[in-house]
Amino acid sequence: MTPEQVAASYDQIAVRWVDVSTYGFAQVERAVAFVKHKGVALDVGCGTGRLMVLLGNHGFRTDGIDVSPAMIAQARQRHPDARLFLADICGWELPEAYDLIVAWDSVWHVPLSGQAAALTKLCRGLAAGGVLVFTTGGTDEPDERQNSYMGPPMYHATLGIPNTLKILVEAGCVCRHLEYDQHPESHVYVIAQKPDGGVSTGDRVRLRPVVAGDLPRMFALQLDPDSNRMAVTIPRTREAFDSLWAKSLIDPNAPARAILFDGAFAGHVSCFSVEGQDHVGYWIDPAFWGKGIASRALHLLLREVTKRPLTATAATSNGASLRVLQRCGFVVEQVRQSPATDRYPACEIAVLVLR
């Protein structure tokens, strides 16, 4: 079965999961005990948000992702302030590094051919010292099965225990616990941890308000030919730049933040209004490209700016910016031709929205 077919099956039984079942809670509690920094968690296959209260009680701010529209709709009703993503974990990019990732009875629905990549993605999505807890089939060899145990057709796959442990090691994680918790059923849960071996990019990025003293540096950055080529933009004149930022610095509804990487000025990120719509944008010093700084900075801004929807635009040729925006939950809602202006050459742009 495809992820879309699995989603359709769960849509049919979503109401069954709107309960207070504590299934799996004890195992997740055991995983939480290994977490040193209880900051941000991700619930993969969050369903109706059943685990979010448990994680919140431990101090986690929890994001959720699920492939089922009906499940996500139930989760939004129960947790209206949570950041929830309707997406397939196979194609979704994690917006940040997480201190805890829970994938309880979820990733085993991923097609067998995508199991290794999905598990690797989750391991690499952990912050230093972060913990992953997930369930799998306790077989010795890879296996996949289809049944209708709950009514609609359902699919399960497993890499087998030896391959699962091998992938954890290759992805830089250590197995802390493995248990056949429903023996003699071959249901296994695994707790893995990324060693706390250093400081991640996320820990090195900070935001502060843009001040007048930043403007000379920001003006010089927006003149950079490589940056303009990638963003498909035309540098502003000094007059236009000064006029724009004179207004921005005194506008309480347009937060503008300097991006600091290890204390050094690395660019800026901001929220601003365009024809009555709230937009976000950023500009990174080319000396800091390729470090994940843009994704982390935008994520930090989105924590601060809680209003939704937010819109962003990017040239369709600017794959880097499209990936940054999509990692932070923005979804492409329109692609159109944009005419030439003083700021932009004529080009094809994608309009992305975070709701």
UniProtKB/TrEMBL annotation:
SUPFAM superfamilies in alphabetical order: Acyl-CoA N-acyltransferases (Nat), S-adenosyl-L-methionine-dependent methyltransferases
Boundaries of every N-acetyltransferase domain copy: 205-350
Pfam family, one: Methyltransf_25
Entries under InterPro entries matching the protein: Acyl_CoA_acyltransferase, GNAT_dom, Methyltransf_25, SAM-dependent_MTases_sf
Keywords: Transferase
GO molecular function: acyltransferase activity, transferring groups other than amino-acyl groups
Protein name in UniProt: N-acetyltransferase
Biological source species: Limnoglobus roseus
